[in-house]
């Protein structure tokens, strides 16, 4: 069963060191307790969540490097329901990078066609993952240094 937890680590460097050190320590301690764990740190809460689903081990992304780190990841790491992923795949889009490379006006046009049935996550949304499903709870947030 997949479970995910999110932590806001702003200001923790004074206690635990840099983000890389904190992520490594956290992963080691959780693994010592017998859990398989992936840890991702990013300036954006949404990016940290997707990175945790897309990469194994520990991933730390510096501000401004999110796009290139997310680009090769499959769309399955997006917090979307399977029908929404299939809609995007029907556009012959398979990765974050391919989705990001769409011309903005073209993307808006395509999204307008499916607007009634789709709610797309915004980068500033606070996303909480729950238990084995990728269920979402949204609140507006500009969280920085989020860790999954």
> Alpha-carbon distance between the termini?
16 Å
Q: Count the strands?
A: 6
Sheet with the most strands? Answer: 4 strands, mixed
- Assess the beta-strand content as a share of residues: 5-15%
Shape: elongated
Number of helices: 7
Strand order of the largest sheet: 1-6-2-3
The run of helices and strands is: EHHEHEHHHHEEE
Oligomer: single chain
Structural class: alpha+beta
The level of helicity is 25-40%
Mean pLDDT: 75
Unreliable stretches (pLDDT < 50, length at least 5) are 116-144
Structural commentary:
There is one protein chain. The protein has 148 residues and is an alpha+beta fold. 38% of the residues lie in helices and 11% in strands. The protein has 7 helices and 6 strands, in the order βααβαβααααβββ. It has helices at 13-16, 19-32, 45-54, 66-70, 82-89, 96-100, 104-113, and strands spanning 7-8, 39-42, 58-60, 125-127, 138-140, 146-147. The strands form 2 sheets. Strands 1-6-2-3 form a 4-stranded mixed sheet. The protein has a two-stranded antiparallel sheet with strand order 4-5. Helix 3 links the parallel strand 2 and strand 3 (58-60). The radius of gyration is 16 Å and the shape is elongated.
Short description:
The chain contains seven helices and six strands.
Could you name the key traits of this structure?
148 residues; alpha+beta; 4-stranded mixed beta sheet; elongated
């Amino acid at each position: 069963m997949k479970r995910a937890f999110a932590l806001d680590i702003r200001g923790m460097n004074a206690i635990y060191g840099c983000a890389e050190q904190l992520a490594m320590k956290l992963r080691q301690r959780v693994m010592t307790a017998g859990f398989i764990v992936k840890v991702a740190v990013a300036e954006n809460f949404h990016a940290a969540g997707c990175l945790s689903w897309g990469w194994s081990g520990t991933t730390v992304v510096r501000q401004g490097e999110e796009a290139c780190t997310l680009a090769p990841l499959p769309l399955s790491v997006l917090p979307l329901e399977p029908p929404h992923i299939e809609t995007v795949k029907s556009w012959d889009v398979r990765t974050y990078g391919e989705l990001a490379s769409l011309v903005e006006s073209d993307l808006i046009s395509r999204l307008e066609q499916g607007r009634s049935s789709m709610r797309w996550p915004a980068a500033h949304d606070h996303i909480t993952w729950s238990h084995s499903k990728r269920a979402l709870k949204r609140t507006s947030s500009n969280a920085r240094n989020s860790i999954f």
